[in-house]
Amino acid sequence: MNNDLVCFIPARRNSKSIPEKNTKLLGGKPLVAWSIETAKNCGLERIVVNTDDPKIAEIASRYGVEAQMRPLNLGWDDTPMFDVLRSEIFKLSPVPDHVLLLQPTSPFRNKNQVNIALGYFLANLEKYDSLVSVERVPEKYHPYAMILESSSGKRMLFRKLIGWKEKLFSKQKFVGPLLSGFPISTRIMRRQDLPQCWIPDGSIYLFRADNLKQGSLYGKQTMLLETEVTRNLNTLEELEEVEKLCAQK
After folding, report:
1. DSSP assignment of 32-98, as one string?
2. Model's pTM, two decimal places?
3. Do residues 156 and 177 lie in contact, with contact meaning Cβ atoms separated by under 8 Å?
4. Of 22, 107, 133, whose CA–CA distance to 70 is shortest?
5. Which site in 7, 136, 177, 192 is 20 to 30 Å from 41, CA atoms measured?
6. 56-74 pLDDT, tens per residue?
7. Which residues lie closer than 8 Å to 221 by C-beta, 6 or more apart?
8. Domains of the chain
9. Tens digit of pLDDT for each residue in 119-174?
């Protein structure tokens, strides 16, 4: 495997949605361990778990990979991932040319998905600066049909069903979302005419390290890799649900 590539697994301690999320047990092992094992199963030579938590650093050591301690100010919920990457990637020695970002919240990505992504990206470095795993957006949630809440524009006729009687008979001024998003007058109504669209699934990011110096991890050209849908764990309810599935299997 390419020595110029590092697998970077960011695993901070704090999380409002799931306290100490990355050390929670899933299927009998810490959540962060799932991504570590996937990277090791891919034969990656450089695997770094970046954390602000000594407990997570100990887990990384137990699984035989490097732990990199980040500054405490990069461990908050509102800290952008880009800020972590820009700060920590260039502290590695040697500094890698390419980065595979595996977030612990996607524990069920498998080695085949990662190896396919690596194969496509490393074989097309002359064309692409990054690769992102995506899933197709269902027609029901197509962006051409979206209505976004906005702070400008004309209000539309809208009322939530919940509590509609109270709102209808009260003297309170109606407050609803503003019509924003794709212009309503030019929206495509026939589903057959909708363009294909995808959304990042959060499981695999590959990029040139130098992209970070330009203010983005994506660079100028990004390859989209459509993969099988994987579970992304962002709430305690989601974690508990998949833990039950693991116990059943």
Report:
1. HHHHHHHHHHTT-S-EEEEES-HHHHHHHHHTT-EEEEPPGGG-STT--HHHHHHHHGGGSSSPPSE
2. 0.81
3. yes
4. 22
5. 136
6. 999 999 999 999 999 878 8
7. 127, 128, 129, 130
8. 5-135+198-248 (3.90.550.10), 138-196 (no CATH)
9. 999 999 999 999 999 998 888 888 777 766 655 544 544 545 555 555 555 555 54
